[in-house]
Amino acid sequence: MRMSLHDDEVVATPELVRRLVADQFPRWAHLPVTPGPAGGTDHHLFRLGDELLVRMPKIAWAQHQAVSDARWLPRLAPHLPLQVPAPEAVGEPGLGFPFRWSVTPWLDGTSPAVGELGPDAARQLGEFVAALRTVSTEGGPVKDGTGRGVPLARLDDDVRAAITESGTRIDARAVTKAWDQALGARPASDVFWIHGDLLPGNLLAHDGSMTAVIDWGGVGVGDPAADLIPSWTQFAGEERAAFRAAATAGLTDPDDAWERGRGWVLVQAVIALPYYWDRWPAFARGSQQRITAVLED
């Protein structure tokens, strides 16, 4: 039996969601609540009728996302060429559930498999990344600490520790060399709005075209290279080139940003690998594949 994803994970059930919705949003009390698609590392998902989705944080680090989404996604959405799940409502803790939660529109599409999307979809996603940079950052939440989008050097200790902890699961020498190369790139000359977590599970597509970008828990103002990770996590070959051209258009340091982008893939994949090795083996294997993609590029 697979161990819990997190030691302090909070579990939500359809019955709990039904009661919370009925108590706090009676206008939706008549809608059925059913398990939604498999959530990622930080939320349980539930369908609310046919047109809504309830997002229930499963871990304390995600407890602020409902409020963040409600504040920033309506500001960003008008400038973006793909749909984003701006919340319809934010729920309060209750009935033993300790976190704020959200009700968002249900967005059609499915998360594309790695390599499934062609050059046109890659270009669409690249244009989405570039469009984020056109939005004024005034008053936006500047990335801090070791969050995605800060200077890569702040993650140096964490990445090197994870390389050691990963043991023979990776080629430590090659990964360290790639990490050193990323650290050697010039830091970002300016900061912009970033999504911060453009892994395949946070992308939606239909009939080969991108439709939406979801899960904005990493949103903020930071190094735009953090949003170049689909180059290695989703695309290769012609598709990678199409994404790179669109996503780096207008940057003053596209080559350095590319190297920092490789570093951001390593940050996510290397740190995740030992943590999720037993907790979520499929995610750990995906991390190994992302590391390999960086090393082979």
TrEMBL record:
Signal peptide: none annotated. InterPro entries: AGP_Transferase, Aminoglycoside_PTrfase, Kinase-like_dom_sf. It comes from the Bacteria. Pfam families: APH. Residues 38-264 form the Aminoglycoside phosphotransferase domain. This is Aminoglycoside phosphotransferase domain-containing protein. It comes from Promicromonospora soli. The lineage of its organism: Bacteria, Bacillati, Actinomycetota, Actinomycetes, Micrococcales.
